[in-house]
Each structure stands twice: as C-alpha cells, then as structure tokens.
Predict the structure.
Amino acid sequence: MSIMELNGGSVIAMVGKDCVAIASDLRLGNQALGISSSFQRIFPVTDRVYVGLPGLATDVTTLRERFRYRVNMYTIKEEREIEPETFAHLVSSTLYEHRFGPYFIEPVMAGLSKTPSGGYKPFIAATDLIGCLNFAKDFVVAGTASAKLFGVAEGLWEPDLEAEDLFETISQTLLNAVDRDAYSGWGAIVHVITKDKIITRTLKARMD
Amino acid sequence: MPDMTSLAHPQQRAFNPYTENGGTILAIAGADFSVIAGDTRQSEGYSIQTRYAPKVFRLTDRAVLAVNGFAADGNMFVKKVKQRLEWYRHAHAKDMPLRAIARLIQTMLYARRFFPYYVYNILGGIEEDGTGAVYSFDPVGSYEREACRAAGAAQSLVQPFLDNQIYFKNQVPAPGTSHPAHLPLPTVLSIVIDSFTSATERHIEVGDGLEIYIVLAKGRTLHGTESIGGMQELTTTDDGERVFVVRRDLKKD
Amino acid sequence: MDHFPTNWGRPRNDAFDAYATHPIHQRPYNGPKDTFADGVQRTQSGWSITNPFVPSDLVYRQPIVTGSSVLAIKYKDGVMMAADNLASYGSLARFKDVQRLHQVGNYTVIGAGGDMSDFQYIQYILEELSIEEISAQDGHELGPVEIHEYMSQVMYARRSKMNPLWNSLLIAGFKDGKRFLSFVDLLGTTYTASTLATGYGAYIAQPLLRKAVEGKEDIITEEEARKILEDSMRVLFYRDARSLNKFQIATISSAGVSISDSMQLDTTWSFAEDIRGYGAQTQ
C-alpha cells in the first residue's frame, strides 16, 4: 500500500493566453472506499495565486496551514503580496526541510505574476513531495491520475487558449482522466485565473 | 547492507521467465473499416534494443493482430495463431472469420492459464456482416468486442484520450443533435497519429516508428486517404476486404 | 514514485546480473514485483537439495564461467562481429584464450556472452544440425536466417521449460547477397538492428556503434568497420572489469566467413596518474 495512493485525488494546472487554470477532483477515499465527494484540495494563496495539494489528506490540512502561516509572515515582513514565483520557492523549501521524512503531497501551483510594465504573466509550477520544482510552459499534473492527465493533456492542450477555451480544455482533460482512475473523481472543481476575475465552477461529473 | 539472516539460510529464487519490452498498441473500429496501430520500439529496462520490431501483424485479408508485452511470447503467439489459421485454410478452403479468430485466440490464451503468454492482444478487422470490429484480450484470454482500445506501456495515457475523442465521453451534444456512432477514416487516422505523438512525448518506452494497419470492408474505397505518404497495400485477393499499412516516423529520443 | 533513495538510479531489471558479481542470496532486489513470475505454478518432480521447501525445477540457476560483451555492426559489404577472449569465473579472469565467435556452416557466425558451458552445448547442437543438413545432400544450405530461427526456438523452448541456456547470442551472416544480423537471449527475446551489442556492450558500446553506423550502413568500408569495432572494444576494456585486451573480429561478406586470429588492443595508461584516486596521489 502506497501512502501517496491512500486517499486518492489529482490536480492539474494549465497555461492560457493571459490566464491560467487549476483544477482538481473532489474525492477523498480510504483506498478503494469513497469517504467524501466534497474534499477541497485547491486553496487560494493570494488573489492571483492558487495551490493544489494532492496526496495524503492529513498532510493537505497540515500543509495548507503551514503555507497560510508562512505567506502571512511574508506579507507582514515584506508589506506586499507574495508573487507566484516566490510562493513556488516557499513551497519547495518548506517541503525540502523534510527531505528525509517528507509530507506526502505533490503541490501544483497556478497564478499570474506582475511584470515590470504593470501587466500580468501566466505562471504554473509543480513539485514532487520533497520540493523539486518543475516550471512548465504548458501544463503540470499530479496525483493518482497523473499518467492519465499527462496523456489527455498532451493530446488536448494548445498554446494561447482564451479563458473560456482554457476552461473547456482543462475540464475535459480532468474529467476524462479521472474517469479512468479508481482513486480520483467523485466531482470536480475548476478555477480560471484572469487579470480581472477568477472563474470558479464545479463540474457535473460521473459519480461512480 | 547484506541481510545476515539470508546468509544463514540461502534464499533461492526461481528463474524469471518473463520480461517487459515496452511499446504501445491501439485499435479503433469504424462503420466499415478498422485501424490497428503500434509503435516499433522494443526496449528492456532503460535500453532500446531495436528501433524497428513490428508488433502489428496481418493475419488474413480481414484480420490484423497487435501484440504487446513480453516480445518473445508475443512473437511465439503470433506464430501459433498464424499456424492455426493456415490449418483452417487447408481444412475449409477459406479464411477464418474474425469472430472465430477472436474465440481461437481466447482458447489459445486460456490453454496457458497457469503459465501465461505475458501478452496483451488487440485484434482488428472486418466481421462477416461487413462491419469494422476490434476485439481486446487480457493475457489469459478474457475478451470483448469494442469500438476502440489501447494497450501496453502508454495505455493509461492513451485510453482516456480515446474515451474523449472516440466515445465523446464528457462531451454534451448540442440540443437536438447526437454524437456520431462511428467516425470517418481520416478523422480516426488523425486521432491515432495524435495519440502516438502524445504517448511518445511523455513515455520513454514509446517512439522510433509507427505502423498503422487499415482494413477496409468489401467494396469500400480509401476515398480521401490515398494521399497519405508511405501507404502500401498488402491485400492478397482482389474481390474481398483490403489491407493497407502506413509507416511513419516517431521521435527517437 | 519510489520514496527510498537507496533504490534510486539502479537498473530497472536488477534481477539480471549478467556477470554474477553478487552471490544470489546477497543480491538486493529493487525492481518492480513481477506478479506474473510469482504466479507461475508448475507441477514439480522433486525438491531442492539445499532447501527442501523449494521444488527442484524452481531452483534458481546461475551462470558460472561467463563471457562478457559481443559487438556487431553492418557495413557496406557485409557484417562484422567482435568479442574478447576472456571467460570469467565470477570476478576471476579464469580463461584468457577462449573463442567466443563460432562459425556455423558457410555463411554464419554466432557470438556468445553469458555462460560458456551453455555456449559449448549450443556449438554442439549446431554441429549436429549442420551434419544432419549436409547428410541430406539436397542442395540446401543453412544460412544465417535459418540459424537465427533455430536458435530462437531452442532458447525460447528452454526458457519455457524453466531451464534456460544462459546466453546472449549475436548471429551474423551473409547469404544470397543479403546481410543479416540478429540477437537472441536466454528468454527467447529476439531482434535485429544495424548495430547490436550484448552484456555491458549494450550500455557502453551500443551508443558509440549507433553514432558511427546508423544511416551509414551502405557507406562504411571494411577498414572503417574494423576501426569502429576496435575503438569500441578498447572503451569496453577500459570500463568493463570483466573484459580483456585480447579479442577477435569475424568478417562475413560475399567472400565468406573469416574469423581473425586473436589481436592485442593498444592501450594508453599514462593519463591514469592524473586521475585522483587512480594512481599515486600528490595531495
């Protein structure tokens, strides 16, 4: 029995044109037994940064609180909001502190970062459970359905998708991937982050 | 650190008669055609043994078999299936029908229930009623007829993509319309090619080359698909089903 | 994801230790658990001598006196194969004048890595086969294609009896104007390619061979082919601890088969003293 597969769940993030999206299923399980179909594992960090925490459910709660604490400390000390790049490194170093007794979480981050000219640039990243960062230009995936997410995303994703098209792409990718994964599914939620609003939708999914 | 208890009682391990040779296969059935494809890389561990080892084989003018898993078992299995089909030809003076080949394959696989052929089989072709068909098997012979199936190293990458693009899973048709039950050949070929380029991108055991077999029902033409580069006809008779193969490159890294 | 750092970076098929450098009971197994191998249940005829709970036909066999890499490439006029003259006993360089390239019939050479006694048995059965074929006097001669098919069936049959011939074989030949080069191993796995290498050669020499040969099979001359193989054998001698600087090259072309006398590799070791941890250290 793998600890990474105890509770199940998957997260994916994608880059679009001046927007990013992050999505996850809502299942919490105990191995094959489904426990909850409304388990949140994506959390807002700032107005423009979201983090998804697939993996061991108890560590989801712990890490969410840890990140909240560290982001608050950063905001107080720096007197400004944390940028997604900075947050990614915060996540990475938090996980690496526990290099030989890790949290069993593989975080996925999505956000818009400020450019010097005052615009916004899409940013996504993911790490493994000990904090090895992966800055991808297209999409990042994690969780029990990661292989399936990779396969579908590689087939559906294309560059420069507008917000609504990106929503459709990430939703289709997630739904079709988790439908082939026994440990993921039971509902899904999508967040699309644009420069002036965040679109959050819960999807109608297969519940078997 | 060597385990001291195991030194005291030498633990004996059986010779492992199996290995995995990577690669992926896939088949899609149309209304009056069938497409069966596989990559041509053969690997063991992190080594590429060869960039060209076929996994897809023409059995008759209306049946094509794709085998994936342990290559030595796969080659032996195809050899034995071909032998049985030849005996059938000698006894009945005709080619075995597709659904009969499917049952033959299940019997041959189950005959080795306690020392299995470590092979996933996908059989594609044309049924006696002229419809395109795909049969998929597990190593010990469980099988079913389907419209599409992926197997092998990148099964988990390709199958959900096929669910979406072939079965239109999670797609809602516009009001008053419905999804097509069967897709046209050019669409199917693009989906096959996209599936393999995606699998090659994300799976180290997939790549080098792609072989796509196309089986056409009696009287059906390729219309519109002749222009595809590197297509070659393999048909042996001139009044029945027709078999074609398309060979393409995949990334070699 | 495997979370145990001690398992990282190991070959995925750790069960196959081509050189038997670890005694079997000490060898760590880190590969994936193969449910198929574990699921194999066979009727047994007796029990192991050392462990009465293990059926005798499941006793783990291992190679004893072993040969290392065999290399082969296609070139303009035919095929060329190389193997050194060493047969090791574990880490001991036991026999240093062993021929690992063997001619079969008039068109084929077979080269072997792995267990040398099994290889001698293969030579014996191929000799019997050749005698049978010649006795028929029907004008048929065994070419490389036939030898390959025969060997692949023998190797697969023996693995299916759970009693393998512990070898990796390369089969090279030239008949009816066609080059032939193939691989067969103890599992009955077969394949062909324009460059082939067994044992450590598959890791060390194969990349060099592919770079030198792929796409140039019809251009490379005999001299160039010999140089490519010699250079690869030299690299193997530097890096493979179970290799020897004495080797042979077999050439198979329209002119027939010729296996060279043993040759010495010219090697340089002056660089060694510059490598920290290799020669005498100044600091």
User: Anything to note?
Assistant: The mean pLDDT of chain A is 97. Residues 57-78 of chain A form the longest helix (22 residues).
